[in-house]
Amino acid sequence: MEEKALTLRHELPRLIAAAKALGASMLVMLLMTVDEELHRQELEQHKEAGAGQADRP
Fold it and tell me: What is the pTM of this model?
């Protein structure tokens, strides 16, 4: 699943640009929401990984 999210995250800017060029405003909004959510999840994973390392001596 993580690999698919990374691929999607990599392609999102291109998909957003294409949707804008087509004038598909609802699709642009959806893709931007997905981008924001993936970014938020990525930050949470980094925080959790950092917290787990801080707990170890």
Answer: 0.70
Residue owning tokens 């392609």: 11
Per-residue pLDDT tens over the stretch 20-40: 999 999 999 999 999 999 899
Q: What angle do CA 48, 51, 36 make, to 5 degrees?
A: 30
Q: Quick one: tokens of 14?
A: 């291109």
Inter-residue long-range contacts of 6-9, CB under 8 Å, 24+ positions, other chains counted:
8/34, 8/38, 9/35, 9/38, 9/39, 9/42
Round to whole Å and give the CA distance between 46 and 57.
19
